[in-house]
Amino acid sequence: MSQIIEIKVPDIGDYADVPVIEVLVSPGDRVEEEQSLLTLESDKATMDIPSPSAGTVKEIRVKPGERISEGTVIVLLESEAKAPPTESASSAAASAASNAQQPPAQSTVQEPTQPPVAANAPQPSAKSSPALTATHAEPSPTQAHEPNAENHTASHASPSVRQFARELGVEVRQVNGTGPKGRITQDDVRAYVKATLQSGVKASGAASGAGGALNLLPWPQVAFTKFGPLETKPLSRIKKIAGANLHRNWVMIPHVTSHEEADITELEALRVKLNQENSKTALKVTLLAFLIKASVAALKQYPSFNTSLDGDNLIYKKYYHIGFAADTPNGLVVPVIKNADQKGVLEIAQETTELAQLAREGKLKSEQMQGGCFSISSLGGIGGTYFTPIINAPEVAILGVCRSALKPVWDGQQFMPRLMLPLSLSYDHRVIDGAEAARFNAYLASILADFRRVTL
Ligand code: CAO
């Protein structure tokens, strides 16, 4: 037999005068037992108040923005339950509330994949009682993984929104909140899903059967203190921004890396000679300047490398702006040499030196890092043989360069010592085929082997 029951705010520990931030039901709605009725948000926690039983909402007694405390009547419900909620229900709520106030043991490591109370509350009563769920919203290092980490502290979303996000396979920390104090709303989650689908995650084919979300395991949570002493340092601003970009590019672009070796014996002799000739000036001609010039020639020869994907279209660029990765004390940045096709090697050498210096001093302007068509990541001054550079979206290819080494090369009659430069070209396989990449590399190597070809 149905009856009208008053649903009150249960014992929520030390919280009082907590603002209602969202009313999740309307009069006439049928609700299930445990379904969230409204969301409260204190300075420290967001709490959903679930319905103690299934039934129909007759009246809502509170409004968003109103401040409420334990005992406030929030909803009149025509209950389908056989008996009114029992005492044990409120004790479960109290237990849940006190759990909610304690900082979760590893809250600084990762978003909870379930509302914490579900795990903390005593199982039998949690199911049948008006327990509340709480989600701590304190700043945590997870912000380092947010695309817009500069603007956020931690992901800030009610449990119902988190539940909604989980159902769609969305990590809330990836979503920009547009609600009060940057709170993430259901609309924000929807907008994120829409943007992600439009930007091609679906098309690129993810791991799950549906082809949408990656459906990955949660990040491992390790209590490192068990294994030894620790020191925690925040990631630099550049690392956070670069990391989010690298992560997106790695996940969204089907990368393939094609390797090649270029004989730069003659080119290195020319470079040394030029530096001797210019020894009285401060200008130093680096291999990077030749690589930029050679890349422009290869982009002209193979225009599909100078493109960007735009849905089903490929945008061909008629300009040649080449980015180069610069290692700085605060992380990786990519200054861009504009119109490299219109500049000589000496001018490019001058400009890369100046831009690299500005990068290391943290003085690069944003326009000096914009408009790139193709990037070069040169680790030659450091070492290595080959590596897999990550494409700098929306570009479609990047050239990785490692340290040149003298190697015995067969000239048809004998082995000759030649200076060989390892090249690693990563390309977006949606745009570029393997054969085309091999041709690009071979052409680039032929130019570096005989730089007169750059003028052809
Ligand atoms: N093989 C052998 N030696 C090389 C070389 C190569 N491929 N490239 C450079 N060198 C030598 C240079 O000739 C120079 O030698 P000398 O001091 O004897 O003249 C020395 O290495 C140092 O060069 P450099 O690094 O100062 O200059 P550069 O023009 O080659 O590079 C820059 C400039 C900004 C690209 C570089 O300093 C840098 O930051 N590289 C790191 C890029 C990076 O981090 N990439 C990874 C991104 S992906 O995670």
TrEMBL record:
The record's note on quaternary structure and interaction partners says: Forms a 24-polypeptide structural core with octahedral symmetry.
Catalytic function, reaction form: N(6)-[(R)-dihydrolipoyl]-L-lysyl-[protein] + acetyl-CoA = N(6)-[(R)-S(8)-acetyldihydrolipoyl]-L-lysyl-[protein] + CoA
Task: Please report the organism this UniProt entry assigns to the protein.
Answer: Mycoavidus cysteinexigens
The organism's superkingdom is given as Bacteria
Role played: The pyruvate dehydrogenase complex catalyzes the overall conversion of pyruvate to acetyl-CoA and CO(2). It contains multiple copies of three enzymatic components: pyruvate dehydrogenase (E1), dihydrolipoamide acetyltransferase (E2) and lipoamide dehydrogenase (E3).
Among PANTHER family, the record links this protein to:
DIHYDROLIPOAMIDE ACETYLTRANSFERASE COMPONENT OF PYRUVATE DEHYDROGENASE COMPLEX, DIHYDROLIPOYLLYSINE-RESIDUE ACETYLTRANSFERASE COMPONENT OF PYRUVATE DEHYDROGENASE COMPLEX
InterPro entries attached to this UniProt entry: 2-oxoA_DH_lipoyl-BS, 2-oxoacid_DH_actylTfrase, 2-oxoacid_DH_E2_comp, Biotin_lipoyl, CAT-like_dom_sf, E3-bd_dom_sf, PSBD, Single_hybrid_motif
Q: Does the keyword Repeat apply?
A: yes
**Alphabetical UniProt keywords:** Acyltransferase, Lipoyl, Repeat, Transferase
Name this protein carries in UniProt: Dihydrolipoamide acetyltransferase component of pyruvate dehydrogenase complex
Instruction: Spell out where the chain crosses the membrane.
Output: none
What Pfam families does the record tag this protein with? 2-oxoacid_dh, Biotin_lipoyl, E3_binding
Cofactor(s) demanded: (R)-lipoate
Region (Disordered) residue ranges read 79-159
**Biological process annotations from GO:** pyruvate decarboxylation to acetyl-CoA
**PROSITE patterns of this UniProt entry?**
BIOTINYL_LIPOYL, LIPOYL, PSBD
**Similarity comment: family membership:** Belongs to the 2-oxoacid dehydrogenase family.
* Compositional bias segments (type: Polar residues): 122-132, 140-159
Q: What is its EC number?
A: 2.3.1.-
